[in-house]
Write a structure and sequence with these properties.
Quinone Oxidoreductase, Chain A, domain 1; alpha/beta; Rossmann fold; 16 strands
Length: 336
């Protein structure tokens, strides 16, 4: 089969190549998926750049890609609830990533039937952003109806899903940041208030938010505490690791200590307001994807896909994603 693989750490496209590979082995609990479409996420090009090598070191050449939608090709002997030919979608776990390929084997507990209302391309755009949003806002921030939330980068792939989920499923009062040109569009997604970062600074807003969802990292993470109410929560997918992050990645004692030192400034900021700080890596979950699928089929949330690339242009898709200018998700068409 044909796959895209990382051959070394460094810049795109020098460190990514197409290669021929054997079909992945299918264990008793696995589903072999013939991939129709896969989508690009920031973690994909960050892996290539080596940004995560301290916590997730690759053995080269390494398959990669997390999101996919495709047809069930084969089933392990202990798989129940799925049949050959089913259209399914999944977020592959970090230990078995490889959805930028014609076939991928994924443990069945991470796989869900694709929403019936969506094309395979649209369904492929969802898994990682959907799981990240649910695990951030529900599992960690414990969001409750009527609370206020600030979502950074609302026009991106993650932000555009998070706005809809926060407003239409959780019933939150939603503020988001974006550029002026995307202000009207994110309002249409469900944002109550839009802060155009090219005209105003979100850090000057009053401290009125119960939750800040930080999708950017850097100085944004620390500055987000200034707009929190006492007892509020910053939940981040790009900021310094929290103490639980070390356990999540199976860090050695030495690395755990380093990560604790890095996390300490955020922990102290949270303590000053009696609040919380979370930084986590998304985990795969078929059950949560089933929940999201029901929302899609009910029309509560829509997918946002900027462009669909043919498989032979997958490297170009990664390069464009790395610019940070994509409006919604980028999808790679692998089969028909």
């Amino acid at each position: 089969m044909k796959r895209l693989e990382i051959c070394s750490y460094g810049p795109l496209p020098q460190c990514v190549r197409f290669a021929e590979s054997d079909l992945p082995a299918v264990g008793d609990h696995d589903i072999l998926v013939k991939v129709v479409a896969a989508s690009v996420n920031p973690i994909d090009y960050k892996l290539v750049h080596g940004d995560l090598r301290r916590v997730h070191r690759l053995d080269f050449p390494a398959p990669f890609g997390f999101d996919c939608c495709g047809r069930v090709e084969a089933l392990g002997s202990k798989v129940v609830g799925h049949e050959a030919g089913d259209l399914v979608y999944a977020r592959a776990p970090r230990t078995r990533m490889g959805t930028f390929a014609e076939f991928v084997a994924i443990e069945s507990r991470y796989v869900a039937k694709a929403p019936t209302s969506l094309s395979a391309q649209a369904a492929a755009s969802l898994p990682l952003v959907a799981l990240t949003t649910v695990q951030a806002l529900v599992d960690r921030a414990k969001a409750r109806k009527g609370q206020s939330i600030l979502i950074h980068a609302g026009s991106g792939g993650l932000g555009s899903f998070a706005i809809q989920y926060a407003k239409r499923e959780l019933g939150l009062d939603v503020t988001t940041t974006t550029s002026s040109k995307n202000a009207l569009w994110v309002r249409e997604l469900g944002a109550d208030v839009v802060v155009a970062y090219d005209r105003e600074n979100y850090a000057s807003l009053p401290a009125r938010y119960h939750i800040v969802f930080d999708t950017l990292g850097g100085s944004t993470t620390s500055a987000s505490f200034s707009v929190l109410k006492p007892g509020g929560t910053v939940v981040s997918v790009a900021g310094p690791p929290d103490r639980a992050f070390a356990r999540q990645v199976g860090a050695t004692p030495a690395l755990s200590f380093v990560l604790w030192c890095i996390s300490l400034p955020m922990e102290l900021r949270a303590r000053r307001i009696g609040g919380h700080y979370f930084r986590f890596l998304t985990e795969s979950s078929g059950a949560q994807l089933e929940h999201v699928g029901r929302l899609l089929d009910a029309g509560k949330i829509r997918t946002v896909v900027e462009k669909i690339y043919p498989f032979d242009q997958a490297i170009e898709a990664l390069q464009f994603a790395a610019t940070g200018r994509a409006k919604g998700k980028l999808v790679i068409q692998i089969a028909t």
